[in-house]
Specification:
CATH class of the largest domain: Alpha Beta
Shape: globular
CATH superfamily of the largest domain: NADH Oxidase
Radius of gyration: 20 Å
Strand content: 5-15%
Largest sheet: 4 strands, antiparallel
Strand order of the largest sheet: 1-2-4-3
Number of strands: 4
CATH topology of the largest domain: NADH Oxidase
Order of helices and strands: HHEHHEHHHEHEH
Helix content: 40-55%
CATH architecture of the largest domain: 3-Layer(aba) Sandwich
């Protein structure tokens, strides 16, 4: 646990990267950690795009406000939520659970009904918003996994989502981009934050213990 805390203290949102390529096995472990992370209903209502092509990164740069990490990174992970949840997607998930656990799909009817009931209480847009929130669980997992691998990771929301979706053809895939995680190695000569102390609230200001709650 201490090693994990040391890694979390080491990491920061890197502003400049060297462009050096990451070992493929590190990237795969980070992506696999994201695949294994939690999501509501276990549905994983999003996809992760792995971008390493230099020309494509250059094309992404203008829609990402010319942030240098886009082209200085080794890889970009783009998190893209499903553009709405459908009954068909729920049915596919039920079949996946049944096949993976080698149980009859009929035994999951209660779980399926719960998901369908949830779906009926949402509009198309609100179900997308829910899916988008799930991507941030995955994004957080990616940040931690990168730190464990001694890889710098910069989470990014400062981009034109509609422009990125058009560039990557995400609408045709039923996806909408929500965030980007740039992976690479910090450039100690160019990054003004490389030696800056990490700024976080104190534990006393951040954590609210149940002993201090005025419960009803």
């Amino acid at each position: 646990m201490m090693d994990l805390l040391e890694k979390m203290n080491w990491r920061y949102a890197t502003k400049r990267m060297t462009g050096e390529k990451l070992p493929p096995e590190k990237v795969e472990r980070i992506v696999e950690s994201i695949r294994l992370t939690a999501s509501g209903f276990g549905l994983q209502p999003y996809n992760v795009l792995v971008i390493e092509d230099e020309e494509l990164k250059r094309r992404i740069l203008p829609v990402a406000n010319n942030q240098p990490q886009i082209v200085e990174s080794s890889h970009l992970l783009i998190f893209a939520a499903w553009d709405g949840i459908t009954e068909n997607k729920i049915e596919n998930h039920i079949q996946l659970v049944a096949n993976t656990r080698n149980i009859p799909a009929e035994s999951l009817q209660g779980f399926k009904n719960s998901m369908l009931g949830w779906l009926k209480s949402h509009t198309h847009e609100s179900s997308f918003n829910w899916a988008a929130r799930q991507t941030y669980i995955a994004l957080g997992t990616g940040i931690v996994a990168a730190a464990v691998e001694d890889v710098d990771a910069t989470p990014m929301e400062g981009f034109n989502a509609a422009g990125l979706d058009e560039l990557l053809g995400l609408k045709e895939k039923g996806l909408r981009s929500t965030s980007i995680l740039a992976l690479g190695y910090r450039d100690a000569d160019k990054d003004h934050l490389v030696n800056a102390p990490k700024v976080r609230k104190s534990k006393e200001d951040f954590v609210i213990r149940d002993s201090s709650l005025a419960t009803v």
